[in-house]
Amino acid sequence: MADQNNIYDPNRAATGGHIPAADPAQQNRERMSMEIMAASAAAMHANVENEYIGTGEEISTERYNTIIGVLLLYGFVVNAILCFVFTKQIMSMNYAVLLVIYLVGMFAGTIICHKTENPVISFIGYNLIVVPLGLFITPFLSMYRITTIRYAFCVMGVCTLLMIGLAELYPQFFKGIGRMLFSCLIIGLVGEIVMWCVGLSSGVFDFVFVGILMGYIGYDWAVAQNKRKTTANAVLSAGLIFADMIYMLIRLLRILSSRNN
What we know:
Layout: H1 24-45, H2 61-85, H3 87-91, H4 95-115, H5 119-141, H6 146-169, H7 171-175, H8 178-197, H9 204-226, H10 231-260
Helix pairs in contact: 1-4, 1-8, 1-10, 2-5, 2-10, 4-5, 5-10, 6-9, 6-10, 8-9, 9-10
C-alpha cells in the first residue's frame, strides 16, 4: 500500500485518461495543489511590468528572443527528465516536502530573476523555478496516459505560439490587460476555493484558467518586448512564460481527460 503521505499511489498504472485519487485526503491534496499553483501564478505576475531590470548591457532583439526560446526548451527538457525518469523517486517523497520545495523554490527563483543583472545568477534563479515545478507536477502527470500528455503539450504549444503571435501584432492591447488578467485570476482562484469548501467542483474553472494563462503568455511577451533587451530580462521573461505554460498544461490535461473519461 502506498504511503498515505504521498499525493498519489505510485503503484497504480495510468491506463485511462485520468485516474483520480481514491482516498479523500489525496483528492483534497490534488485540489489544494491546483489552488497553490493558481496562487503562485498570481504572485509571480504581481506588478510584473514594473519589476523588469532597467540596467545592464543591451543585446539584439534576435539574441534576446533566442535566449527566451532556448531557456523555455531547456525548462521542458529538465521537467521531462524529472517527470518521466525520476517518477518513482519523486512519488515516494512526502507531499509536505514537495510543497515546501515548490513554494521556497518558486519564491526564491522569482525574486532572484527580478533582482539580479548577473546572467549566471539569473540562470540559477530560473532553475529554482523550473526544478520545483517539475517536482511538483510529477504526481499530476503520473496519473495521465502518455498520449493524453502529448496531446495536451501540443495544444499548449499551439496556444503559446498563437498568443505570442497576437502579442507581436497587438502589443499595446496585451500590455494594457495585465491588471484585468490579475483580477480575473484572483476571482477565479477565490471562486474555485469557495466551491471546493462547499464540496462542489466544476470543469468550467479549468477553461477559465486556460484562457487567463493564455492571456498572460501574450501579456508577458508584450511586456518583455517593451523592456530593455538584456540577458537578465530575457531570463525573467522565460521564467514567467515557462510557469504560464506549465500551469496551462495541467489545466489542459484536466479538460482533455474529463472528455475522454
